[in-house]
Write a structure and sequence with these properties.
Elements (H helix, E strand, L loop, with lengths): L1 H12 L1 H23 L6 H11 L5 H5 L5 H5 L7 H17 L12 H21 L5 H8 L1 H5 L1 H6 L5 H20 L8 H16 L3 H23 L5 H33 L9 H6 L3 H22 L8 H19 L9 H5 L6 H25 L6 H6 L4 H21 L3 H20 L1 H9 L3 H18 L8 H7 L2 H10 L7 E7 L2 E4 L5 E3 L8 E7 L4 E8 L7 E3 L3 E4 L4 E3 H4 L9 E7 L2 E4 L1 E3 L4 E3 L5 E2 L3 E3 L6 E6 L4 E7 L2 E3 L3
Antiparallel strand pairs: 1-2, 1-3, 1-5, 4-16, 5-15, 6-14, 6-17, 7-8, 7-16, 9-10, 9-15, 11-12, 12-13, 13-14
């Protein structure tokens, strides 16, 4: 007891330490209260993921197979981020469990997002300890809290399946901590295991989210650059070479995974090869210089927007938050201009400095900022709605960029600490970061209105309020929303609810025409309900040179994301074979194939989109190498023009993959 009293007395006498602890407690309380009281936005996509991963369909492997279904997980846009689906699966199961506990009632919050945001803050604490070893532990805690507070909009408004962004940020923080800590020492044999684990972590980040690939490439380049720096300074460089090899090896394996292994698994599990035209690498190789120049400008602009959002949210603040942010910047400026040497020496700082030589830290700082610009440039080009400023004000997508910017800020503080080791410097920095966090929090309400108060998001907000009332009351009946009934239903009932759920599409209709006559089925349309309803045909027909075979796909009850996987084959008796996927091209009529849609009673040509390697008409209908989607009110038509007279055999096994 005496020891405890003496410790408390020491804490109270040490005013800076006590003040920093109070700041940390205040920030944790503010963030926790916000997390408990504010509700997230529910998007229709979140409902699809919840029902997909919350539906018990069998044993372990049947659940794992869901991760390898691009139609249900990425709406037929193959992106090879299966680990991200694993986290979403855990999220869905946790959501179903926690909403039955009165204390939690999380609604549609992401448990994985919350967990990994907090874990990232812990890792940032250790990074701050490495970069600012003379600072108190409570000071480093306050600095680390800048990450969860500056990204709290993500946790509170995030669509629950976006947890891959948070996991990627965590991996990045862990890599940087290892880079800073491990490379201070000479290489030892037992470190080999660490490099293997680091490479594994890099690979896991790659297959969590596409941002993981970007940050991983940055760390590969950074490791190589720092290896050269250390080599020229006659210091140990073996560690850096090992790091570079570990990251590079992980990336090579990722390419193998993306292009070879993952498509093979999808083929084995689902019976079709995924369409890689949506993959990022294919997309960027098809872009011209003008697209990259425009993307670079938006990368710079949106990086600047993210800086203000993370460090005070000046753009969407109010008078009070603006005043606090201004005070924070003044304190940081005072810390920058002061040159008070403080104590003549600090053995702890000297012994733990590690990577803190100016050249190495400057390399991390400059490349980190450039990586933010480059990463956001590519994200904007790839899917520019994700980079709209309104979405940025919602703060829900770019955790990796925020992490890199906060890391850059810590490195700047590390530089400044070389000039000033006084306790006053530490006080200015910690108080400045604390005020940034509070300014972020006080500007949150305005951010919420600016970020989500437009278009269809207003409908989602109203729907969200209804869901919240039903979830909190836990009075679920037949009139309750389908998703709310799904959450509170027992596992057996969830299976039946899932089977009977509404779908944005109702399967697809298909048929084959020869000129004006129908050859399959005999009459009407063949209907495929889902991927278990494969339609097989084997038809023989006489053709003249110039005869036309039409492979038509039309909607059944609705559109949604229903897609027909259809790769018809025409074989002459002499062995001449024409397969749709092999003959697919960007030129009408090449290899005997044309790409059209039915416009009333007539057929019209589709337009080729070289970026997506698809034929389309204002989005839909759509034709790719081995798939077709109808249009709104019209069928898509893959057309084969017979090059010669003869008897042909027409075979295939089309199937509809339904909307999630």
């Amino acid at each position: 007891m005496y020891t405890l009293i003496r410790t408390l007395r020491t804490e109270f006498h040490d005013k800076p330490r006590f003040a920093f602890a109070v700041m940390f407690i205040i920030m944790v309380a503010v963030w926790g209260a916000s997390l408990k009281n504010m509700r997230p936005i529910i998007h229709r996509e979140a409902e699809s993921f919840l029902t997909n991963y919350g539906n018990p369909t069998g044993g372990f492997w049947s659940e794992v197979s869901k991760f390898f279904d691009p139609v249900s997980t990425d709406w037929d846009a193959y992106q090879a981020r299966e680990l991200g689906y694993g986290f979403e699966y855990v999220d869905a199961q946790a959501l179903l469990l926690f909403n039955k506990v009165p204390f939690f009632s999380y609604g549609f919050r992401s448990v994985m997002q919350i967990t990994f945001t907090i874990l990232t803050a812990f890792v940032l604490y250790f990074i701050a300890r490495e970069l600012l070893p003379a600072f108190r532990r409570t000071s480093c805690m306050v600095l680390a809290m800048l990450f969860p507070v500056s990204t709290q909009m993500l946790v509170m408004h995030g669509l629950y399946f976006r947890c891959g962004k948070t996991v990627t940020a965590f991996w990045t923080a862990l890599w940087i901590l290892c880079l800073i800590h491990w490379l201070k020492q000479p290489a030892k044999p037992w470190h080999a295991a660490s490099y293997i684990l680091l490479g594994l972590g890099a690979f896991l980040s790659y297959i969590t989210d596409k941002q993981g690939v970007m940050t991983g490439l940055w760390l590969i380049g950074l490791s190589g650059i720092m290896a050269v720096i250390r080599r020229h300074r006659n210091q140990t460089y073996r560690h850096f070479l090992f790091f570079a090899a570990s990251f590079a090896g992980a990336f090579c394996f990722y390419l193998y995974w993306d292009y070879r292994l993952c498509p093979y698994i999808i083929q084995a599990v689902n019976g079709y090869h995924p369409d890689r035209s949506w993959s990022s690498l294919s997309f960027f190789l098809s872009q011209g210089a003008a697209a990259y120049i425009g993307g670079l400008w938006h990368g710079v602009k949106l990086t600047a927007l993210q800086i203000q959002l993370a460090f005070g949210n000046v753009w969407d603040g109010n008078l009070l938050s603006w005043g606090l942010a201004l005070a924070a910047y003044i304190l940081v400026a005072l810390a920058a201009i002061q040159k008070t040497p403080g104590a003549p020496g600090n053995t702890i700082d000297d012994s733990r400095r590690g990577l803190s030589d100016r050249t190495a830290l400057a390399t991390v700082l400059v490349t980190a900022l450039l990586t933010c610009v480059f990463m956001i440039m590519l994200l904007y080009m790839r899917h520019n709605p994700l980079a709209w400023e309104d979405l940025w004000k919602g703060g829900y997508y770019y955790q990796s960029a925020t992490l890199i910017l906060i890391l850059a800020l810590l490195i700047v503080f590390s530089f400044l600490s070389r000039r000033n080791r006084s306790s006053r410097f530490e006080t200015y920095i910690v108080c400045g970061v604390f005020l940034m966090c509070i300014a972020n929090y006080l500007g949150l309400d305005k951010t919420r209105g600016a970020g989500w108060g437009y278009g269809h998001m207003m409908e989602q907000i109203e729907q969200n309020r209804t869901y919240d009332e039903e979830i909190r009351s836990k009075q679920v009946n037949e009139s309750a929303s389908f998703v709310v009934r799904f959450i509170f239903a027992p596992a057996g009932e969830r299976r039946e609810l899932y089977k009977a759920r509404g779908s944005h599409g109702g399967g697809l209709n298909m048929k084959i025409m020869k000129n004006d006559g129908q050859i399959w089925p005999k009459e009407g349309w063949a209907h495929s309900k889902n991927n278990a309803d494969r339609l097989r045909y084997d038809v023989k027909v006489e053709v003249e040179s110039g005869d036309t075979l039409y492979f038509l796909v039309g909607a059944h009850e609705g559109m949604g994301f229903d897609t027909a996987y259809w790769d018809p084959v025409i074989t002459y008796e002499d062995g001449s074979t024409f397969k749709a996927s092999k003959g697919f091209s960007g030129t009408q009529g090449k290899n005997g194939w044309r790409y059209q849609y039915k416009d009333g009673a007539n057929y019209a040509g589709l337009v080729y989109d070289s970026r997506q390697k698809s034929w389309r008409h204002h989005g839909f209908p759509l034709l790719k190498a081995n798939r077709q989607r109808p249009g709104f009110g019209g069928e898509s038509a893959r057309v084969f023009v017979a090059p010669k007279i003869g008897k042909v055999r027409v075979t295939g096994a089309p199937v509809c993959v339904r909307s999630p």
